[in-house]
Amino acid sequence: MYSPHHSRTGAGAYARVGVETRAMSASPLQLIHMLFDGARTAIGAARLHLAAGDIAAKGLAISKAINIVDNGLKASLDAEAAGEAGTELIGNLSSLYDYVVQRLLLANLRNDAQALDEADRLLDHLASAWREIDARPSNG
């Protein structure tokens, strides 16, 4: 018996396996890229749901983006690994991630597309900086 629900669930499971497989073989920098991509994809979905008037789906997409920023990107900051020289950078990044989360919460509360756009722009700038780090030749 065919059910569109099972089809979507199967496709979703297949996609999750692909993401999990990439994550298991990814370098730490590649994982950071995946987190940025996931957060920005969720923000894009939230923007589409907001425009379509699907407030529940918008809320779920924003919640996903917040979770990625807070429990992925921010949680990956390692003050010990950064050392004394990186302490200020870690503090600044942590504050910036907090600000992005605040903008996403505001976007959700007020159905504010501009707040979504600002959060997306900030994440895009940060992702670009991480891509530049990844593109630098290694010293080893």
From TrEMBL:
UniProt key word Cytoplasm: yes
Keywords, ordered alphabetically: Bacterial flagellum biogenesis, Cell projection, Chaperone, Cilium, Cytoplasm, Flagellum
CDD domains associated with the record: FliS
Gene3D superfamilies with a match to the protein in the record: Flagellar protein FliS
Annotated compartments: Cytoplasm, Cytosol
Superkingdom to which the source organism belongs: Bacteria
Any one of the GO BP annotations: bacterial-type flagellum-dependent cell motility
Single GO cellular component term: cytosol
Main localization of the protein described in the UniProt heading: cytoplasm
A Pfam short name: FliS
Keyword RNA-binding on entry: no
Annotated family: Belongs to the FliS family.
Protein name: Flagellar secretion chaperone FliS
Species for this entry: Acidovorax cavernicola
Lineage: Bacteria, Pseudomonadati, Pseudomonadota, Betaproteobacteria, Burkholderiales
Gene this protein is translated from: fliS
